[in-house]
Amino acid sequence: MSDKSEQREDLLGLLMDRAGVDEVPDGDIPADAAAGIDLVLSRTLQRALHDDLWVDEWIRQQRAQPCMQASIVPLGDMGAWGVDPVTGNIAHSSGGFFTVTGITVRHRGPCGEITWDQPAIDQPEVGILGILAAPINGVLHFCLQAKEEPGNIGPLQLSPTVQATYSNYTRAHGGAATPLVEYFMDPPREQVMFAKLQTEDGGRFLFKSNRNMIVRLNEAPPLPGNNFIWLTLRQISQLMTRDNLLHACTRSVLSSLVCGACSNFRIEDVSSEIGEMIDLPHTLLQKAKYSAARLTQIHDAVQWLDDQRAANHVFLKREPMNSLSEWTMGRDGIIRHRENRFFNIVGLSVQCTGREVVAWNQPILAPIGTGVIGLLMKLRNERRYFLMQAKVDAGNRTSVQIGPTVQFTPMNYLGNQKLSRPFLFDEFTGKGRFKVLRESWQAEEGARFYREQHRHCILQLPEDEQLEVPPDFRWFSEEELGFFLNLGDSVNSCARSILACLI
Fold first, then answer.
1. Helix (H) or strand (E) holding 486
2. Measuring CA to CA, which of 95, 131, 287, 467 is 20 to 30 A from 333?
3. Beta strand 81-83 pairing with 90-92
4. Nearest CA to 354 among 179, 230, 229?
């Protein structure tokens, strides 16, 4: 047995002792239980390749050496990017990357009908958002990279190991190859911890999905630069509490672990010190099974989502940008909503070092106001449940997906005759009715969105309170959310973002 295997067995033995388990059933560890154990160890042990102070200093040094400068320019002055004089659509001269086009939308739902038009990012290609995992000194670590993007707040954030569009990793831009992408192109099935297509922001992207992946290697490979780092789940969890540090794509990928294999171990309630009491609510090494009752719950959840999709009809049509009635380009070369709501479209001129391409121009969406992404949680019989909504976004292939409890920008609703305020609007805008469990600012990804951040807030419903919820809301157990996360393209990007805050 190798030294690393012995270290892991020693750690497993200690965890079993704390859990009161004397031996492994049937003399073997089921694969799903072994994966859960590794995640628990990664989330709870102090042991890590780098101690926490070293990680803090590494982040400080990375942020002290920004390599990118971005300045706003008129949309008509973007070089290879141009505004079509006939349609008003924005596209790259190569025909690659993405296009900003117009759409008109008609949404007919149980409460009536609403129509609007808007610009949307049309990028009909699947990118890779991949995180490498590997055991180091017997503890599972995850590889992240400190990466700058032109729209970042920070200036850099901790991104996945690989964060690349199809145009990027096929080198349509003519630049250098994407580091470490080879591990995600066709990994052996036994190395894949998670691999699902997940939608991007369907309110602004048009039918856009990326492949979210976690690939586990037997040994940690050499890293291609000092901007990459191996971190345990415990360290990532701590960094998640910091404002605008963990990239939106990182949160999207890691959300698979919150309600995935490790959810049965309730890692949030496990002490950070392995020597203290560890409370595992399920038998440690049993194979994961759904009881008949759980299968019924999954069936009910699937039926609820299908009912919501049947009750909401979304009709979307691509239109030239010049034909949009609610949007216009000003003399400054910026596209705005006529009531100055939602977002602007601006041009950026970018110069940098250390990237595949050292200079480029691009369009980017700049937000109007800051948004709120909120999750209401309740505990019943020591189990967590989350209030989720059937969220309609015109740009998703399945127009209704499972969204967080709330997902809105307050100023878009104030004085708006077309839109009514969302359910629990007041509770998530600072009225203090429910206990605040988690709160932080998390940034949107800076490649398509310019300095955009949302307040992420998790509230807890008191155990003695019964909340009457509308029919398009439903309480989901962790198992149910894990099921839909593993379906892919069913849990929207905002829900994945705030679920990751529970790592």
1. helix 478-487
2. 95
3. antiparallel
4. 179
- Model confidence at 337, pLDDT cuts 50, 70, 90, reads very high
**Cβ contact 284:13 at 8 Å:** no
End-to-end Cα distance, the chain: 32
Residue among 338, 333, 337 at smallest CA distance from 119: 337
What mean pLDDT is predicted for residues 115-127? 93
Closest CA to 476 of 203, 269, 258: 258
With beta carbons less than 8 A apart as the criterion, state whether 154 and 68 touch.
no
Of the two residues 268 and 459, the one the predictor is more confident about is 459
Rounded to two decimals, the pTM is 0.88
Instruction: State whether residue 134 is helix, strand or coil.
Output: strand
Separation CA 438–CA 330 (nearest Å): 40
CA atoms within 13 A on the CB side of 359: 6
DSSP run (H or E) holding 42? helix 31-44
Number of residues written out for the chain: 503
d(CA 200, CA 378): 27
Mean pLDDT of 206-227: 95
Among 100-109, 277-286, 471-480, whose mean pLDDT is lowest?
277-286
Respond yes or no on whether the N-terminal peptide bond of residue 471 is cis (omega within 30° of 0). Answer: no
Of the chain, the percentage scoring pLDDT greater than 90 comes to 68
Pick the closest to residue 457 from 418, 488, 497 (CA basis). Answer: 497
Q: Across residues 292-306, what is the average pLDDT? A: 84
Give the phi and the psi of residue 237 in degrees, each rounded to 5: -60, -40
The pLDDT value recorded for residue 94 is 86
Which residues fall within 8 angstroms of residue 54, CB to CB, at 6 or more apart?
Answer: none
* pLDDT of 183 above 60: yes
Q: Which residues contact 56 (CB under 8 A, 6 or more apart)?
A: none
Structure tokens at 99: 């296009």
Mean pLDDT, residues 447-466: 95
Enter the DSSP assignment of 421.
P
CA distance 420 to 115: 14
The confidence score (pLDDT) of residue 104 equals 98
Give 157-178 as a DSSP string. EEEESEEE-HHHHTTTTS-PPP
